[in-house]
Write a structure and sequence with these properties.
The structure is a homodimer.
Chain A (H helix, E strand, L loop, with lengths): L6 H20 L6 H12 L5 H8 L3 H13 L3 E5 L7 E5 L1 H21 L5 H21 L6
Antiparallel strand pairs in A: 1-2
The structure holds a DNA duplex.
Chain lengths: 147, 147
Amino acid sequence: MQIQDSYGFLLAKVEEEMEALFTEYLRKLHITAPQFGVLQHIEQYPNASQIQVSEALFIDRTTMVAHVDHLEKIDLIKRVRNPNDRRSFGLTVTEYGVSALKKGRKQLNKTENSVLSVLDQDEKGHLKSILKKVWNSIQEGEHDGKN
Amino acid sequence: MQIQDSYGFLLAKVEEEMEALFTEYLRKLHITAPQFGVLQHIEQYPNASQIQVSEALFIDRTTMVAHVDHLEKIDLIKRVRNPNDRRSFGLTVTEYGVSALKKGRKQLNKTENSVLSVLDQDEKGHLKSILKKVWNSIQEGEHDGKN
DNA sequence: TATTGTTATACTCTATAACTATA
DNA sequence: TATAGTTATAGAGTATAACAATA
């Protein structure tokens, strides 16, 4: 079997293509794909702490510091010290962050449709449900301190 | 929609899990997952040049230098100057490289089956055929000088 | 002039360890 | 003692530019 037919190779290359296209667009917003994910998560769960976002998105907390630093620096989010536990921050999206999210979501749809344009609706549905099934099983099986 | 339900997130996380597990095993062989791919490709196409491997696996040629340097250093492959075109090398797998490949392939199967164990045979087949379909369409659409 | 391989450089993500301030 | 956030550091992949040797 060729390495190009392995699941790992195919997953990696399709993912790379999708991320590369999305990243190219996101340059206009001065953020990367993982940073867009962080931004979207903060909008959905306002006042989440950095650790909470880290655990939800499976991003290391040291990487999260860099993402949050950057998003705050370009005024897409704010850190507000949590008065009930002064070790942590509550993260919130700014007005400017909301408008960036709207643009980003629109483009994410475009990018996904473009990369997967060769698939019909059934195949797209299969792909997503299969990936979610696998990812759920990975999460349930997780017991080490990766994050 | 949550970012955790996007194709990009799911592809990235499932790929990360598969690569992390495989990489953990490959530490015994002192190579990474991309290096295993390079090794396997050289076995299948003996005397391929670095550029040829780069183009087949969509790995940048400057990254390829580092991979080939490493694989040669630990005696899994050899560089032999091509007498017909002295700019390039012919790459071949050593005896030791062949035995590493056997172990690696065995583990790759185990890893894939483990990560995808939640899927039935039909679903595994769907996943692979869908990923190949998408990857083929990406390759055909490629026209820039990424590699 | 073009191509193969190489080097230098820079950026992003990942991961570990150790630190601080707070609990 | 434990947790949230931070800093320092290192490793891996990716990408661009520029160079030498060769075609």
